[in-house]
Amino acid sequence: MGDNNLVQRKRKVKRIYSPTKLRILLLLQAGVALSFAGTIGRQLRILGELAQEWKDIDRQYLRQIVREFYRDRLVSERENSDGTKTILLTEQGKKRALTFNERTLTIPVPKEWNALWHGVFYDIPEKFKLQRHAFREKLRDLGFFPWQKSVFVHPYPCRDEIDFIVELLEVRPYVRYGVLTYLTNEAELLLHFKLKKPEK
Questions:
Q1: How far apart are alpha carbons 132 and 135 in whole angstroms?
Q2: At how many degrees (to 10) do helices 129-141 and 159-169 cross?
Q3: CA proximity to 24, closest of 46, 9, 6, 8
Q4: Which domains can be identified in the chain, with CATH numbers?
Q5: pLDDT under 50 in the chain at which residues?
Q6: Distance from chain centroid for Cα 180
Q7: Residue 28's closest CA among 84, 83, 81, 75?
Q8: Where do the H-state alpha helices sit in the chain?
Q9: C-alpha 131: how far from its chain's center?
């Protein structure tokens, strides 16, 4: 009995590293319906009619991850009037939905700023609006400044973090990253980030 409790505690705190697993959590958090027949624990059968966002995830792998999430108490099931069921995030699942590995939780702050700006430019189509919303919110979480529509700026190197997010959300074709040496209205950014230009 004691060993079983130890295993359950380990399951509750284990960190998710797989971009596909994180993407599944993000889609559920965004309210993209995932319906099934049978039971999550045994005969889970993902229904044929799915939102576009689910269709490029392998069905067998999706069933495997949903069962794993159920065991870890990250998802629950809701009975529908037609006899099918819908997978929902639990409160614990919601807390985990936007948890990346430790390298992506924050952007490292160097001892000295080198006066370079790091810009993210994106044009994510309307058919991927859920991913677009998740991408924008994650940029805000990381401390980016919304410089213009679909243009976010940060003073510190963050290419690895952006690469992880675009892979997670599968939006790489629509996102660009650049390092900028000169910006107009730079004073606004300096004020926002509480920075001063280094003396030459």
A1: 5
A2: 150
A3: 46
A4: 2-96 (1.10.10), 102-193 (3.30.70.240)
A5: 1-13, 100-104
A6: 26
A7: 75
A8: 2-13, 19-29, 59-71, 91-96, 102-105, 129-141, 159-169, 186-193
A9: 9
